[in-house]
Amino acid sequence: MAGKDMRKLRDNGAFDFVVVGAGSAGCLLAARLADGGRNSVCLLEAGRKGGDILYDLPMLAGRLYLNPKNNWSYHTVPQPGLNGRKIFLPRGRKVGGSFIFNGAQYIRGNRSDYDQWAQMGNKGWSYEEVLPYFKRSEKYLTASASGFTNGYHGLNGHLAVGKPENPNVLTQAFLQACSAAGFPLNDDFNGPRQEGFGLYDFNISDGRRCTTRRAFLDPAVQKGHVTLVPNAEATRLLFQGDAVDGVEYQAGDTLFTVRARREVVLTAGAMNTPKLLMLSGIGNAEHLSALGIETRRHLPGVGENFMDHINVAIFHKAKEMVSLGSVLRWDRFAAATLNTFLRRRGPLSQSALEAGGFFSTRPGLEAPDCQAVFVPIPGTAAKIKAPWAETLDDHGFLMPLWPNRPVSRGRIALRSANPRDDIDIDPRFMSYRDDLETTREAVKIGRRILATAPLDRYRGIEVSPGKDVVTDDEIEAFIRENGKSGHHACGTAKMGVDAMSVVDNQLRVHGMRNLRIADASVTPTIVTGNTNAVTIMVAERASDFALGRAPVAGSVPA
Ligand SMILES: Cc1cc2nc3c(=O)[nH]c(=O)nc-3n(C[C@H](O)[C@H](O)[C@H](O)COP(=O)(O)OP(=O)(O)OC[C@H]3O[C@@H](n4cnc5c(N)ncnc54)[C@H](O)[C@@H]3O)c2cc1C
Asked: Of 81, 243, 437, 523, which one's alpha carbon is 20 to 30 angstroms from that of 204?
């Protein structure tokens, strides 16, 4: 590594397990591996430990991810499918990972996602087999129509899951609009069926974001069961033959090593897990040798199979000053902040992505092919104003929508052997026409919903796509010019049995010993939903694999 000889290399001891990356997966995994103090666990995190009280406020998520201190702030290479634009890809860089500023929506995906994984050769990953692991971490707070006991929810975990208490009046009108447009209402997207529209479940409890850090890691660190090392960026894996026995990391200007007696588990996320593998000589031999990295294991799938959801939003101005934009005035913002911290109530204590749903653009699909979200606020960049400056312009609503199972696949590659160098991320967004056409049809359906009578009272002009965007060609051009990442990067070290897979069905890296991956990188396909819940489920399963425990038996409620 460049400059290595200039720095000291310090030996920082040995642990049973070393976990790299304190994100959605790593925070849960480290705590589980510690097993109540029976195993020693070191958790390395490149980002800071804390100090941002505002991150507790769920509604501010959309603004706080703009803080570069807590964000890897990746951009793609220019995307031909999106008019050559470089797309912003935020990723959390702080203890807590991307969960510190994500939308906190808790959505597991469709049961057929997991049955498909099992059919692809991933024994043990059918819906029936993964359901107990979703339930194990969950503390479900809101009874659905079918009750707490519909069999799909866990009540005894630590990860809070519940619905917004006071949805905005626009959200209520939106749900009536969905009904008026002929779509079913659904109060449990993680329950018996996924189709339909309703209020989302969120990882929020008592007005605060409930991350895996808060739910699992913080208590384990407080009890001394996990040694958390913040500001520690892993730079390469250490080996003895084909066994991984430690990690080199950089803190400040110093390189350290930490040894793992049993295993190293990578939870550095879908961008940085493949980066660390490649820096360590695990990846496509041709790519590695071009950069002067010695190949330890030729695994051509490392960094390939990059998937994400691309969304575009329909945006309307409002005719009444009732949107969540109401809170973006100094006086109300101050009152709402106090309300949140003192009483754990009020608009700032809820996510702005209150409702949405799953629908199909064509008949006969095994799972809904699109998701739409309803956001009763004009946009995440809205500024806080003086009370007298509030106008109708500060009010509106957004409807981002996207295809659930995009066909486009991209890749991540190193630029050099220097860990401090950026990576090239090329998602190849919209490289398949299918993705463009599905998005186009989703926009038409979204417009149909927003045009129904229940929203007549509130609906102002459609700002985007706008009245001039009508034909299929015009909608497609709008998508290419406005498509953005849905922030669901995954799949870059996929589980499987084919030549492009990186880990086996117990998440062990093919051909290596003592090395596992347990984050969003391993999903062989992107799920029909958001990607946090599935990542947490992966970490739950990884903990049992690493501890040698028999899988929890499950069944799907009749
Ligand atoms: C803005 C945004 C909104 C989102 N909204 C939602 C939502 O509402 N619902 C949902 O389900 N999903 C959502 N997601 C996606 C979800 O947050 C991710 O899928 C999930 O957090 C991935 O978890 P992970 O553990 O794989 O990675 P992360 O949570 O990103 O964690 C990786 C951690 O590893 C650390 N790290 C990286 N490299 C190194 C290294 N070399 N050494 C040490 N540490 C390292 C990082 O700093 C980070 O803390 C959103 C994502 C974003 C970015």
From this structure: 523
